[in-house]
Write a structure and sequence with these properties.
By secondary structure, the protein is an alpha+beta fold. The protein is built from three helices and four strands; from the N terminus they run ββαββαα. The strands form two sheets. Strands 1-2 form a two-stranded antiparallel sheet. β3 and β4 form a beta hairpin. It is extended and about 50 Å long.
């Protein structure tokens, strides 16, 4: 086992890499998606930590416009993602 400590609630998952164009992808388990509270369309920051030899993925830190609470913006983005096709259909009428 590596020298990195793990918390008691940490669960490890193994995934195979798939190729999409010139990039590789891995599916994020639903358990982690739920824990991170991310959904389709959310932006993620991904980088390689060469000291630890690990890929790190976290929610992109986008600045929130003044006067808008982050939770309101998050709810709005989720609604847009959920109803994306319906909103596009309305636009095209």
């Amino acid at each position: 086992m590596s020298g990195h400590s793990t918390s008691n609630h940490e669960k490890r998952h193994t995934r195979k890499l798939s190729q999409i164009g010139n990039s590789l992808s891995a599916v994020i388990p639903k358990e982690i998606v739920d824990e991170m509270q991310v959904s389709k369309g959310d932006e993620m920051e991904i980088y390689y930590d060469d000291e630890r030899g690990e890929i790190v993925m976290k929610k992109a830190n986008r600045s929130v416009p003044n006067g808008i609470r982050p939770d309101v913006l998050k709810s709005m983005n989720r609604a847009i993602t959920k109803y994306d096709q319906a909103l596009r259909n309305l636009r095209d009428r």
